[in-house]
Amino acid sequence: MSSNRSLRVAVVGAGPAGIYAADILSKTDLDVSIDLLERLPAPFGLVRYGVAPDHPRIKQIIVALHKVLERGDIRLLANVDYGVDLKLEDLRQFYDAVIFSTGSIRDASLAIPGIDLPESYGAADFVSWYDGHPDVPRTWPLAAREVAVLGAGNVALDVARILAKHADDLLPTEIPANVYELLAASPVTDVHIFARRGPAQVKFSSLELREMGHVPDVDVIVYPEDFDFDDGSMAAIHSSNQTKQVVKTLTDWTLKDPADQTASRRIHLHFLHRPAEVLGADGHVVGLRTERTALNGDGTVSGTGEFHDWPVQAVYRAVGYFGSPLVDIPFDDLKGVIPNNGGRVIDVDGDQVPGVYATGWIKRGPIGLIGSTKSDASETIRNLAEDVRADADELRTAAEPDPDAVLAFLAARAVPVVEWRGWELLEAHEIALGAAVGRERIKVVPREEMTAIARGEQRTAPAERG
After folding, report:
1. In this structure, are residues 396 and 425 in contact, taking their beta carbons and an 8 Å threshold?
2. For residue 352, which of 398, 396, 395, 399 has the smallest C-alpha distance?
3. Sheet-wide strand order for 284-295
4. Are 127 and 389 in contact (CB under 8 A)?
5. Ranges of the chain with pLDDT below 70
6. CA distance 462 to 466
7. If DSSP codes are grouped into helix, strand and coil, which group holds residue 436?
8. What pLDDT, on a 0 to 100 scale, did the predictor assign at position 58?
9. What is the pTM of this model?
10. Which residues contact 391 (CB under 8 A, 6 or more apart)?
């Protein structure tokens, strides 16, 4: 193969990790042609489908990602499902290198009795539902008056807030109509968040925690007996301003007069309670059993043997995300990631898989914010570029490097590809739907409808949809 032609690179996954990787690669001194493949008809991944609709501040990340893709030097090929529409051997025909940035979208497991009862849900699935993910059913069972949320991170806060918040307060957001209707009919009065460690060990951000305290007609209730600080806790407070702010907010809430807490809905925060069992009767959730824990002195906890039963009719586990295996790609089933060295994918023997790379959560696990994602992408691209410079001809292995070749291949398989112009059509349609009812945007949810609009095959007037 000649090194005179452009290096052809496919990035699989058009969330922040994939877009950052493509952007960084495009700014190297390599002569490169980049395609960004996405399984869904719309780009932006978890920023579009994993951020609560009442957090537009975080969704502003999409603005920056949008600017990268609208430049035109990175080609979007959405609605292309890796492992179904094409596999690694197909990608190798058209690309010299492939970067997987498919993220972590499954719920991590929680091995306690009763966790598989019908009203026990994964938070990731619930988030996908209220964010209008096209692969999730449009209905959700919201029959519980009392709900338990297991976890001590921002996803737990999001789930609790969306469940407790009055649906009308979500109308200014891009919440889909079906989600609004079901939330409006929800009978929920109390949402309980359970954290197995103490207030100084939770992973809430101080901003999200403070925001929860300002939700209309929702009281946040904490329990002084759940507050304990060991040496490890004090060290965490003194070493992190974020932890200090979180603890201050939580401690301030302990000073609230119960007589002033008259809201119709409540979010309860319980610390030092480890989920032990989801209680069931007649095949349905009727409660949650927790074990009181005690701090060990270093910020870790141990069980005390003291148990509490809480009457709840639904349980949501928000204990983390987990990656999904990809066809023909090595996978670590314990960590939920693609095994790699600095983004270079490795096989079971520890040898580098030629031309295959990873970035984002599927590379390092579901930790870190946008800053971590950028630095992570930089490392992967740096190593890819190093491999190219070491032997440009060896890495240029694509048999059909013409950019049109992959489009012809997908067309032959009747894959309805959505390119950037198609996304712009879909985005304009969603904005028009919102404008028709005085909202910023209303997401189109059904996948077939999204694809039809993006490909110019459906032009439903906003007034007809309401």
Report:
1. no
2. 395
3. 273-281, 284-295, 301-310
4. no
5. 1-3, 459-466
6. 6
7. helix
8. 73
9. 0.92
10. none
- Cα–Cα distance measured from residue 286 to residue 280, given in angstroms and rounded to the nearest whole number: 5
C-beta of residue 182 within 8 angstroms of C-beta of residue 170: no
Token pair, residue 384, equals: 């890819």
| Tokens linked to 389 | 């410079």
Cα 253-254-255 angle, rounded to 5 deg = 85
Question: Using N-to-C axis directions, what is the helix angle for 16-26 and 370-390, rounded to 10°?
Answer: 40
d(CA 271, CA 218): 20
Residue ranges of alpha helices (H) inside 53-121 are: 56-59, 61-70, 88-94
Give the model confidence (pLDDT) of 142-177 as tens digits.
999 999 999 999 999 999 999 999 999 999 888 898
**164 and 149 Cβ atoms separated by less than 8 Å:** no
| Mean pLDDT over the full length of the chain | 93
* Position 23, amino acid: D
343-376 in b/e burial notation, b at 16+ Cβ within 10 A? bbbbeeeeeebebbbbbbbbbbbbeeeeeebbeb
State the Cα–Cα distance between residues 438 and 445, nearest whole angstrom. Answer: 19
Name residues whose C-beta falls within 8 Å of residue 143's C-beta, 6 or more positions apart in sequence: 187, 313, 314
CA 384 – CA 105 distance, rounded (Å): 26
